[in-house]
Specification:
alpha/beta; single chain; three-stranded antiparallel sheet; 10 helices; Rossmann fold; six-stranded parallel sheet
């Protein structure tokens, strides 16, 4: 069904755990005026649209929600891709590349065939690789293709640090950057709580406190493996993160979020999408924020970028 655009339209491609949870978050927060659900399983998309509409009376702002097809992307401001093969127990995110590259080519080409002129937001793993693929397949400018990057890793980091120091996670200022995966890294050199460097906060607590910080990062890095083992998939956290990025885009916020952005010089890297802080607004990525890294963090970041480039080289001319 095609509707007449009357406000911000978000097209959600893939209504599995992540896509459905994201649409639910959009409706609950009143972020979009129109939400169209697209899935190869049309019954699933139709059922989700029905279910969401039945809760509209409780939403802060009623949105038009319907199941549709790729033609509905023509008038979309944002297409969010949540479709693809899911990570299974024992698999890394990079193990999913072969399965999802072909799926993405079909999806992106179908979206572009509608006459779409908006922004892409990619959530499917491995997100950095698939964001690069979306950019290549779409032909859109790099700033209009964004990956969810390390927004969820950063949120996990802030939550666990806040829990350890007994402060609200919103008052923890710390980033996870790099690949959304096994080579990601914490930027300890710039992490602070209330303006006080975290490294300074642990100095007085001794070696055990430093070990606890290391355990916190490991729990951040391996959180997906732990959740997948316990419940089969992760979706609530990333859905909230996607909703936050969507709000930054549709409301032209110029918010700084750790998304997967294209690098062409910052951090000494080129031709790679990777998780870094970036300013997000209605036009997409306004600019990448190049935070100062210490020497060890620089090495770690370059190693993470090299891991991604090695995978990209199998599919795209580098």
């Amino acid at each position: 069904m095609m509707k007449n655009g009357r406000g911000n339209r978000v097209a959600v491609v893939g209504t599995g755990f992540v896509g459905a949870s994201y649409a639910f978050a959009l409706m609950n927060q009143g972020i979009a005026d129109e939400i169209v659900l697209i899935d190869a399983n049309e019954n699933k998309a139709e059922g989700d649209a029905m279910d969401l509409n039945h809760g509209k009376v409780f939403a802060p702002k009623p949105a038009d929600i319907w199941h549709g097809d790729y033609d509905d992307c023509r008038d979309a401001d944002l297409v969010v891709i949540c479709a693809g093969a899911n990570q299974k127990p024992g698999e890394t995110r990079l193990d999913l590349v072969d399965k999802n590259i072909a799926i993405f080519r079909s999806i992106v080409e179908s979206v572009m065939a509608s006459g779409f002129q908006g922004l892409f937001l990619v959530a499917t793993n491995p997100v950095d690789i698939l964001t690069y693929a979306t950019w290549k397949f779409s032909g859109l400018p790099q700033e209009r293709v964004i990956g969810s990057g390390t927004i969820l890793d950063t949120a996990r980091f802030r939550f666990l640090l806040g829990d350890y120091f007994a402060v609200a996670p919103t008052n923890v200022h710390a980033y996870i950057i790099g690949e959304h995966g096994d080579t990601e890294l914490p930027v300890w050199s710039q992490a602070d709580i209330g303006g006080v460097p975290i490294r300074k906060l642990v100095e007085s607590k001794g070696e055990e406190a430093q070990k606890e910080l290391e355990r916190i990062f490991v729990n951040v890095r391996d959180a997906a493996y732990q959740i997948i083992e316990k419940k089969g998939a992760t979706y609530y956290g990333i859905a909230m993160g996607l909703a936050r990025v969507t709000s930054a885009i549709l409301h032209n916020e110029n918010a700084i979020l750790t998304v997967s952005a294209y690098l062409d010089g910052p951090y000494g890297e080129r031709d790679v999408y990777i998780g870094v802080p970036a300013v997000i607004n209605r036009n997409g990525i306004r600019e990448v924020i190049e935070i100062e890294l210490d020497e060890e963090e620089k090495k770690w970041f370059h190693r993470s970028a090299a891991t991604l480039k090695c995978v990209l080289a199998r599919y795209f001319a580098q």
